[in-house]
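Quick review question:
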């Protein structure tokens, strides 16, 4: 910090000092001159402040900024230490240090916090005030540090200007001095500080916190006080809407609420203890007249005869009015006690408000105001024979892209309110995430409710004058053991349904659960299967149809399970595709194919291996396969790469770039299942293709179905025109072979020429 920094009137610092000031005193934020003008409270001994920082420039800058400064008529004696160990030694030897101005990060990243822990364990040092400074914002969360270590203030070095430094020291020193004096006369003050320090750990309400602390205030006044009360203005509750639903109530002015009679008592002790939750009109009329007639905006401790009051501000705009009723006029010590408690209460309010917001949004959805998954779990507690449902909304992402976030949010809100109205008191509606809503009903689904839900979901969502018809699916689960399981099972059914304009519904069955468990077991077995080489490669011959001469093989994957069973691709490929595990499997198959080709270096035969889009999306895949083939001494053209027509048709930049790199390196590209996927004709002009594979579904009907024969003829002619080979898959009969030869198809594979054989057996 440099003394040339411009002074700043920070609203945060001003608030803290404001409640400390007696009526008529200038706020500390007015600068050093105001701090110097205050009368001495006790002796002329300077306040002892220990500055701990491993940067000499920071210590010198602090000394320069605080030169000639007096706080409440007493100067400052600045001690210094450059390490946590040196500081701890001084604190042990000097019991009169009032404030520790401490750097968080010194010889180690947590040296400052560790020093705080050690200091708090020192006997008779609990009154020491600590101000943390850090050059690394966010290193330790402010509320967490204050909660754990009883920190007086926590600032970054860049924001601690001279004015703020003096302000923080003023607050800290007064807090220290008041703590010492009050402790000397009344040991009960320790309970006040302890109550404020434990607020966030207990996560209690403002009422439960304040009740305990107000009781301690009564005990500290040695029986002079009759009662103490905490008043809060009535809070405004906004009407739920798509942008505001579920938000916490907004604060209101205590002064305005008192005038309108809308304030309430949120905590009380002594003679007022029976008024908790009561309207402010329940207070004695004389006290009400005094409160309504004074100006609360100053925020100082107000003298109301035998009553004293202080207005406490929270950073979120919330206000509380603390009123103390005594048998005689307030003494200065009692006034200072009220101000000190106001500081703790202000911090408590901020902590409680933050916790309330975190807790609220931890259990509620921001867009709809409904419970989220965690909130639904907490609200229900246990499944207890309930029925669960999930509503899946289709095309929500597209709606956001076309009409914007606001329209999508309002559509979600409309659907949520529609579901709430439909289930009524018999169920709970929650917004899970993205495009999902969950319903929990107290009993099995009645036919009438099911019909009503389907009808409600089929109706367009209303946003202003717009009617948005989004496709939806509805999944159900009954008799689930837990709430989470019921939600998940219903979601699984909604996911499996084809989302369409006509709302479809399905109920969870035990067989589906067994399928899921089998898939999980399959994925769990993959790492071990790779380690134990249980991923096998079987080869099926590819022949020239004119003379049945073998020209290559297709590598087909087989998974040998731990119990010896052999699994075919249809039982696991889709699962691996969706989870990304297909990348590891595909890499192993490429390695096996290349190693097989390396064992027959003189052969002209090639091997075709299947690639997934997931592999092509890997940024280093082209470089890896090129390097692997070169390292094994296998020419790239001997390894033909197959991708499905749907994958080939994707207009993805990364996939297109990968295919271009592979073909440029000499790999030949084959389009599998041609004629059954998305249209890929445009891509044929962009990417070099060497082979089109006629899908087995066309070959199967080619003998007797004229339409299948016409499609096959078109594909063969297309291949001839493009100079690309056409290979027919799944040839099983002589009749199919004859038709394909007649159409001019050059290559084929299928059981007619031989079934797949394990690569090891074929090599042998």
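Suggested answer, residue by residue:
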């Amino acid at each position: 910090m440099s003394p040339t920094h411009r002074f700043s009137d920070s609203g945060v610092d001003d608030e803290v000092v404001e409640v400390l000031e007696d009526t008529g005193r200038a706020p500390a934020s007015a600068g050093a001159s105001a701090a110097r003008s205050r009368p001495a409270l006790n002796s002329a001994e300077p306040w002892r402040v220990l500055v701990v920082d491993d940067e000499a420039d920071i210590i010198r800058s602090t000394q320069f900024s605080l030169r000639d400064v007096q706080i409440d008529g007493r100067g400052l004696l600045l001690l210094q230490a450059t390490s946590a160990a040196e500081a701890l030694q001084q604190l042990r030897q000097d019991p009169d240090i009032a404030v520790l101005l401490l750097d968080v990060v010194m010889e180690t990243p947590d040296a400052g916090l560790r020093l705080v822990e050690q200091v708090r364990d020192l006997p008779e040092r609990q009154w020491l005030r600590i101000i943390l400074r850090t050059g690394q914002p966010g290193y330790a969360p402010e509320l967490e540090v204050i909660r754990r270590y009883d920190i007086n203030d926590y600032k970054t070095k860049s924001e601690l200007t001279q004015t703020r430094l003096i302000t923080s020291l003023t607050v800290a020193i007064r807090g220290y001095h008041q703590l010492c004096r009050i402790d000397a006369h009344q040991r009960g003050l320790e309970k006040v500080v302890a109550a404020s320090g434990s607020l966030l750990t207990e996560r209690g309400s403002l009422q439960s916190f304040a009740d305990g602390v107000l009781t301690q205030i009564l005990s500290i006044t040695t029986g002079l006080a009759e009662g103490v009360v905490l008043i809060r203005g009535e809070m405004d509750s906004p009407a739920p809407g798509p942008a505001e639903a579920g938000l916490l109530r907004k604060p209101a002015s205590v002064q305005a609420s008192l005038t309108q009679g809308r304030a309430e008592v949120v905590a009380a002790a002594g003679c007022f203890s029976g008024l908790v939750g009561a309207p402010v009109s329940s207070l004695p009329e004389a006290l009400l007249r005094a409160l309504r007639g004074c100006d609360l905006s100053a925020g100082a401790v107000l003298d109301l005869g035998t009553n004293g009051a202080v207005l406490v501000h929270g950073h979120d705009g919330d206000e509380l009015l603390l009123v103390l009723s005594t048998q005689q006029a307030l003494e200065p010590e009692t006034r200072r006690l009220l101000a000190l408690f106001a500081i703790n209460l202000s911090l408590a309010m901020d902590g409680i408000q933050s916790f309330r917001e975190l807790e609220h949004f931890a259990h509620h959805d921001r867009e709809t105001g409904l419970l989220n998954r965690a909130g639904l779990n907490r609200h229900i507690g246990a499944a207890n024979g309930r029925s669960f449902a999930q509503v899946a909304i289709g095309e929500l992402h597209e709606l956001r892209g076309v009409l914007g976030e606001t329209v999508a949010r309002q559509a979600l809100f409309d659907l949520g309110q529609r579901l709430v109205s439909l289930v009524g008191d018999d169920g709970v509606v929650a917004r899970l995430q993205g495009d999902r809503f969950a319903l929990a009903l107290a009993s099995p689904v009645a036919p009438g409710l099911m019909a009503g839900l389907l009808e409600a979901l089929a109706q367009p969502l209303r946003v202003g004058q717009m009617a948005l018809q989004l496709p939806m699916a509805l999944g159900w689960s009954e008799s689930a053991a837990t709430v989470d399981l019921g939600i998940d099972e219903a979601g699984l059914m909604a996911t499996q349904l084809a989302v369409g304009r006509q709302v479809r519904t399905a109920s969870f069955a035990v067989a589906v659960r067994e399928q899921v468990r089998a898939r999980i077991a399959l994925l769990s077995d993959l790492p071990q299967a790779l380690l134990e080489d249980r991923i096998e490669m079987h080869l099926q011959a590819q022949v020239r149809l004119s003379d049945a001469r073998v020209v290559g093989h297709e590598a087909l994957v087989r998974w040998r399970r731990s119990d010896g069973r052999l699994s075919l691709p249809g039982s696991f490929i889709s699962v691996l595709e969706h989870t990304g595990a297909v990348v590891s499997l595909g890499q192993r198959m490429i390695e096996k194919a290349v190693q097989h080709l390396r064992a027959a270096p003189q052969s002209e035969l090639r091997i075709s291996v299947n690639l997934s889009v997931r592999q092509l999306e890997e940024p280093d895949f082209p470089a890896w396969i090129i390097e692997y083939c070169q390292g094994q001494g296998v020419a790239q053209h001997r390894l033909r790469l197959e991708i499905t027509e749907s994958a080939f048709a994707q207009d993805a930049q990364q996939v297109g770039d990968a295919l271009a790199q592979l073909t440029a390196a000499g790999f030949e590209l084959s389009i599998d299942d041609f004629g059954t996927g998305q249209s890929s004709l445009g891509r044929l002009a962009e990417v070099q293709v060497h082979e089109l594979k006629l899908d087995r579904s066309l070959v199967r009907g080619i003998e007797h179905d004229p339409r299948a024969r016409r499609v096959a003829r078109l594909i063969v002619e297309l291949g001839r025109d493009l100079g690309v080979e056409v290979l027919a898959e799944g040839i099983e009969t002589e009749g199919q072979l004859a038709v394909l030869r007649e159409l001019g198809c050059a290559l084929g594979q299928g059981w007619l020429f031989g079934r797949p054989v394990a690569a090891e057996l074929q090599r042998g």
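Why it works: The chain has four domains: 11-185, 189-360, 373-508, 530-763. Confidence is low (pLDDT under 50) at residues 1-43, 199-204, 237-248.
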